[in-house]
Amino acid sequence: MTRATWRTRIGFILAAVGSAVGLGNVWRFPWLTAENGGAAFLVLYLALIVAVGVPGLIGELVIGRRSGRNPVGAFRELGGDRFRFLGAIALLAAAVVLSFYSVVGGWILRYTLSSATGAYFAAPGEYFAAIDYGLGAVAFHAAFLFATVAVVHLGVDRGIEASTTLMVPGIVVLLGGLAVWVATLPGAAEGYAFYLSLDVGYLRENFLDVLVAAAGQALFTLSVGAGAMLTYASYLGEDRSLAADGTLIAVLNTAIGVLAGLVVFPLLFSLGVSPGQGGPGALFVSLAGAFGDLPYGRIVGVVFFGVVLLAALSSAISILEVLVSYLIDEHGRSRLQATLGAGGLLLVTGSVAAASPAVFGLLADTIANLVLTAGLIGFLLFDGWVLGRLAREEFERGAGRLARLVSLPWYVAIAVALPVFLAFTFVTG
Ligand code: PHE
Ligand code: NA
């Protein structure tokens, strides 16, 4: 059986952007920004996207295209059996991330529907407390997972490419519309001021904490470390510049992330809610509260949570595909069997997270960061010290003059500087 490929280059780019743009942009990023001093965090985060995220992402793409395999097969193919464990880390990271991601996806699905009925308008805090964990959360998590399975089972081009080609432009248009609309709200200016004003003093005093948080977010937002980008790159048929594609993916993801901030902060400030108090869940409670108080709140609520839902779905698809490609390549399963098998596993692990706040918190706060960082360190050391010259060759394949010029600095970065830096954040975090 011949392996699936993307139909078009733009199809691959949009699928990868769909993976990158997700809860990380719309939920984790505004919340971390608020918690870490506003623009101080934003500046450091942007710097780390450039210095760590982009080279790391390209390092992952290189392994995928070079091997044309799922993560486990890729490391076996390129490095021999003793490197299969790197693929196993990727599978583990994918399972960990999707287990809590689909729980949040379930919450969002529920909020999208209940925005239409106004179910949470009267008491947003109580509403969230009633639905966050338990049987309802398990059911909505299952529904979100089912939607993910439904897309992935249709295949790389007919399922993933076709759906993300619609979803990503949809996210941009709807977010843009929301950004324009919130600009008209009274109090929006304070939100921009908070988001865009740089507090150098805060940054100086809390540099290490902000650095670690920003580094973790830079990896999470670009979907690196779990093999999702590796797997997507393994479906590339043509010789495009991975440096150019990786940079474009990061630029689009960052732009959409900043746009999300331009929606969320003015919205919160227009209601006099200060972000960053009460942790990650509080953001959604405050936003939901905002919709309850606004004119056309139901419509705005459906649109806002609908955008988040699309973003979450297109990311979940890429994570599920890691496990599916493994089952297809390594175990000879049909795509349907593989999708149902991986979906069944996540139904169980995700249900545990949906039923237990302790498990959810452990996965979302601690374990996810650790496995993603460990995964990326492994990928980059493999690029640098096992592939070596071949990694640079792959980097330069299809590349223009500029990319060939940065090939050596990139190589030094991924072989030495980034693993050292990531190991440092791993230990500090
Ligand atoms: N990048 C996604 C987001 O920002 C999350 C993700 C992490 C997706 C790892 C795939 C792999 O929401
Ligand atoms: Na992202």
UniProtKB/TrEMBL annotation:
PANTHER family: TRANSPORTER. The chain crosses the membrane at residues 38-64, 85-109, 129-154, 166-187, 207-235, 247-269, 299-328, 340-360, 366-387, 408-429. Keywords: Membrane, Transmembrane, Transmembrane helix, Transport. This is Sodium-dependent transporter. PROSITE patterns: NA_NEUROTRAN_SYMP_3 (PS50267). NCBIfam families: Na_transp. It is a multi-pass membrane protein. It is found in: Membrane. InterPro entries: Na/ntran_symport, SNS_sf, YocR/YhdH-like. It holds the Pfam family SNF. GO terms for cellular component: membrane. It comes from the Archaea. The keyword Kinase does not apply.
